Amino acid sequence: MAPFSLMAAGVSWLAKSFTVFSSTSVLTRCTSVLPASYINPVKCLSSQASGPPKRPLNGYMRFVLQQRPIMARQNPEIKSVDIIRKIAQQWRTLSPEQKQPFQEASLRAREQFTLDLQGYKAQLTPAQLQQQVLEKRQRLAKRKAIRQKRELTNLGKPKRPRTPFNIFMSEHFEEARGTTTPAKMKSLRDDWRNLFNHQKQVYIQLAEDDKIRYKNEMKSWEDHMVEIGREDLVRGKTLSKKKKTDAKAPSAKKATKKAKAKTTKKTAAKGKSKTTKVTTKSSSTKTV
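Structure tokens predicted for Transcription factor A, mitochondrial (288 residues):
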């Protein structure tokens, strides 16, 4: 009976251990997909308890996470940017067979992500779903604005004119009171309010000059944008003015042509009248 009791105790212990291991998170499932050299176990957790599941990493990013600590240990003097460049170069030199484990792990994580996302959305109310759609639109609009700003900077769009307070702040920011930027800004606002009108007039005049600078630079920049075919970046007011001037230009040309034609007709008529007078005089002298 003793061996039988020992076997029963062993079975119960195995059952308890099985329940403990089965209650763990997705971590154990992800580590069993590939060897530890191919996967960062922490990044395989695709869901969170208090939010939507995170998108899984692609094959290249998994390779970066694997190689980055190794490369940093081998080259401690190299910057992180150069390390990423070296890893990217290594990824390009890998064969399709060497890339396959990372890509397969990414594919499995993507399938798990779709399942987790469906489960997460099923728990949300219609109001929460609508809020998520609104937040997604805001994120996309923000990204679009950042891309447009970067494009305008690359195209050399002039900077907007500064206000009198901006000029005052840029001149006195270093010696402003406070250790942090918000504290310095607050002290500068207080100093600006305490200035007399004749003291503010200097910065007001500088701001007016900056407006003139901005106007002239914007005019030349928008003309250049029209020349290179980027009318989508030109303001609507300037486009309407250009269209009006372009519409007036043909009419002005027609008016000048008409005026020239009238003057030529008048000169021709005067020439004819002079010739007729000369012929009448010559005929009268012959008759005499």
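Confidence is low (pLDDT under 50) at residues 1-11, 13-48.
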